[in-house]
Amino acid sequence: MLRDNISKQDEGGGVTTSEILSVAETGGGTAVPLLEVDNLQVEFKTRDGVAKAVNGVSYSVSAGETLAVLGESGSGKSVTAQAIMGILDSPPGRIAGGEVRFHGRDILKMSDEERRKLRGDKMAMIFQDALSSLNPVYSVGDQLGEMFRVHRGMSKKDSKAKAIELMDRVKIPAAKARVGDYPHQFSGGMRQRIMIAMALALEPDLIIADEPTTALDVTVQAQVMDLLAELQREMNMGLILITHDLGVVADVADKIAVMYAGRIVETAPVHEIYKRPSHPYTRGLLDSIPRLDQKGQELYAIKGLPPNLLRIPTGCAFSPRCPKVQDICRTEIPVLHPVTEQDGTELPGRGSACHFWKDQIHG
Amino acid sequence: MAELSKTTTEREPILQVRNLVKHFPLTQGILFKKQVGAVKAVDGVSFDLYQGETLGIVGESGCGKSTVAKLLMNLERATAGEVFYKGQDITKLSGRALKAVRRNIQMVFQDPYTSLNPRMTVGDIIGETFEIHPEVAPKGDRRRKVQELLDVVPDLGLYINRYPHQFSGGQRQRIGIARGLALNPEIIICDEPVSALDVSVQAQVINLMEKLQDEFNLSYIFIAHDLSIVRHISDRVGVMYLGKMAEIGTDAQIYDHPTHPYTQALLSAVPVPDPEVRESRERIILTGDVPSPANPPSGCRFRTRCWKAQDKCSTEEPLLAVPERFKGQDTLAAHDSACHFAEEKAILAV
After folding, report:
1. What is the pTM of this model?
2. B281: contact with A, CB 8 A cutoff
């Protein structure tokens, strides 16, 4: 029903968001994408009203592909991931609509038991803060081995051997000697490797990494990111990389979805978004990164603050902060338009939820 | 140590840090504690700060940059070394004399959520500084003073009676900055002032800090791990590694002509948000982690992760000075670098 509403608003001959996103898939043949999120809506009930954290998000990931979801705090990027994994805090959270298809099946309709079997086995998640995601009173070997004991019914001895193998695989030095160590005995970078090992344990088809390197130092960040990309290639997994850092995703992502206030505002293949953003928000984010030639000048700053999810502005949620705002922006929610060249040539995979995307990309 | 000031003008430094050392004791036993070692958080750091300039300090977590900040405020007692503020060694001060100096050196903290008292209104938080230093504002005048300060900082002027939780992260950091300015200090030490903020809000706070610097002729010590922001705001930059200063110089010297391998690796690892730039540059990926400061490597502390390390590096500690090969040359590579084999390497700057 909600989907109909969105299509109706789009009278200028546009297409629905999922159609645009499927354009990106044409290169990969006609196979069903690994994961399709279709018009997902997530709400949180709070004392002050209903917060619409995710408001009609659609994206897809194929095997071996990396999608980066970029957004500031409160944009809904992590909540989308939690909904996909089925680890949403509910209540107060609630999936209000939409579908999440994994290998073509809507997992939101599955029973809890079915979903529990998917988690860890077919889809896994890597969290930002490895120290609080690992259990401090069990050795890392126990925690890695648990995956095999629970999902594969292995014996304690076999699962320990598997744990050592995994630790080797994520390049933890002296894995055999360290398998009995506890999380606090490892450095931040090593802990994040253990998290990666745990996610990869059962060779899932899909990995969701929520800010996997944000808590790490730059030199360690590069190591961990490289490791993740390497293993993904090796195992041909789909990877969703959630981040707020435009820099981190540049190397590893194939395509980017930029989120703002619970919606996707722009999608594009990774190279193109840096060169030619088609949404004023993306433009603003890129411009506010200090550049060499701006030394001594004032930095470009997006004015104002990200909106309160209880009171998302009418029309385009970015309109109160947008330098190019017009009257229509305050009343009509822009859909994700397919972005084309000036002569009408299609730009595969590109979409912009701005009424004036043409001015933004061509102007 | 006299080398330090050569690269800048002959102005009188407002703050001189000499051989600053902070060791945190590691103890064993409950009743009879005995010291079994020490975490060498800061181990001989020297630099100068000049009036009106911004000195950036970068380094990874655990390199001692935040401890340096606390030592400069005398929030931690230095194990050894001196910090001269206008010729007076503040590490030796206490009581009234220390209080007087602290009026002129203020601090802005990283986390705007925990550094503001949740039970006090903004007006009280900022006004509290005048309780401690009543000579700055007489009692009847305080409310007006606070309002004046809030007016300087964008979109806070109307909210003198609100509590911290009613503000966003960026606004809270601005409250922290307003508090730092309250006593009209000469130096503000900023410890990761924008790293807790969203990208779109970071730029707002950086712009404000630069504006205030011009307006009040402030000197900043800007501690951060984000190299592109440090480059933007700093006049000079120091790179720390495991309690030592590895390299220090002007922003162009450090970013365009780094000679210390650690600086080179650090710069090459910065995530640049442009895929084409990234593909064309050489990345130096360091192996391993930063060693423990309780048991740092002998000689050069970076040698365990350095690709140029030789026998000399494990026996002889490199001093922070202009490398022999660049001495007297008119090149940006001629700045202080603590490496036996300092040389230039083309790194794409941030």
Report:
1. 0.81
2. no
